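Data card: per-record layout.
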Amino acid sequence: MTKLVHKLGLSPTLAFHDVYSLDDPSLLAFVPRPVHALLLVFPTTETYEKARATEDGPLPEYNASGSGEEVLWFRQTIRNACGMMGLLHCACNGGAREMIGMSKTHNTFPDPKIGGNEKLTKRKLAPETDLANLITSALPLDPSSRAQLLETSPGIAQAHASAASGGDTAAPSAEANIDLHFVAFIKSAENHLWELDGRRKGPLNRGKLGDDGDVLAEKALDLGVRRFLKREEELGGDLRFSLVALAPSMD
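The structure for this 251-residue chain is written out next.
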């Protein structure tokens, strides 16, 4: 994951780290702070699908675009690309976004809380990186047009293919049935915790966070990952999951 987002243009001063516990302070202490995004990986169970359909049912389709958006959300139309969608949601939002294009020697984080408090359109992106080009092109588009942009973006496709071919396991075809899904959690400049999932009707605002907390803080975990796992437990779902954090690199 780290290699892929670096290839796309995210600063090498950021990296993905495994989160080994949601409750043990000694294990949570291994994760560098601030955490700019969390990426939850889980099996798509019947419990999850029912809960998703129930929550999405009354919600309108998200059609926002431009400078008024609090987050940049991509609708997923490419099969078996939820991992890539999750990575893009992590890298293109919150404090991580301000780190696009920064070199390894530029290791000062804009804000100790979330990496910056500016509106999305006020943040200056380094030119000539795939992530910067994607964000610049995507911001004025509606979600349907953004999905088409991803489908035709050569830089994103090449980076995805390169990362997939570099693993020990062959990448699945677009037609394969994959039961794992990826969901990102980020903190916006307005201190809201957002759940970003390209299979939903739009981005989901999970609640207000404090000024001094990141997405691995207790309140963020309660509103996000723990809430998700509690629902699975109560409804007899599958509690297998993996969690990675996008945070300062330890190199």
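Known properties of this structure: Residues 106-123, 168-174 have pLDDT under 50 and may be disordered. The chain has nine helices and six strands.

See the next section for split statistics.
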